[in-house]
Amino acid sequence: MLAKTLIGIGLALVGLGLLLYFAPGALSWFGRLPGDINIERGNTRFFFPLTSMIIISVVLTVLVNLFFRR
């Protein structure tokens, strides 16, 4: 079971890498959604992609639940 999980994670990472390599603007939405915090003052910048991380968390939760319930 662990081997299948690691293979699945590896294939997903390869797929994401190919997506980013051949379509560099595919994830341009990340960090620019309403609710993402970006504060710039002088030479200091604070960035916290709150909404983007919530969306990624929900998607990963759904995928993991679908994968392990079979």
Short description:
This protein has 70 residues and is an alpha+beta fold. Helices cover 57% and strands 14% of the residues.
Query: First CA to last CA: what distance?
Result: 12 Å
In round numbers, the mean pLDDT is 87
Structural class: alpha+beta
Helix count, per DSSP? 2
Global outline? elongated
Q: Any low-confidence stretches, pLDDT <50, length ≥5?
A: none
Number of domains: 2
Largest sheet: 2 strands, antiparallel
In oligomeric terms, what are we looking at? single chain
According to DSSP, the number of beta strands is 2
The helix fraction, in percent, is: 55-70%
> How big is the Rg?
16 Å
**Which strand order do you get reading across the main beta sheet?**
1-2
Strand content: 5-15%
What does this structure look like?
- With 70 residues, the protein is an alpha+beta fold.
- The chain folds into 2 domains: 1-26; 31-70, no CATH class.
- Helices cover 57% and strands 14% of the residues.
- The chain is built from 2 helices and 2 strands, in the order αββα.
- It has helices at 2-22, 50-68; strands at 37-41, 44-48.
- It has a two-stranded antiparallel ribbon with strand order 1-2.
- The model has no long low-confidence stretch (mean pLDDT 87).
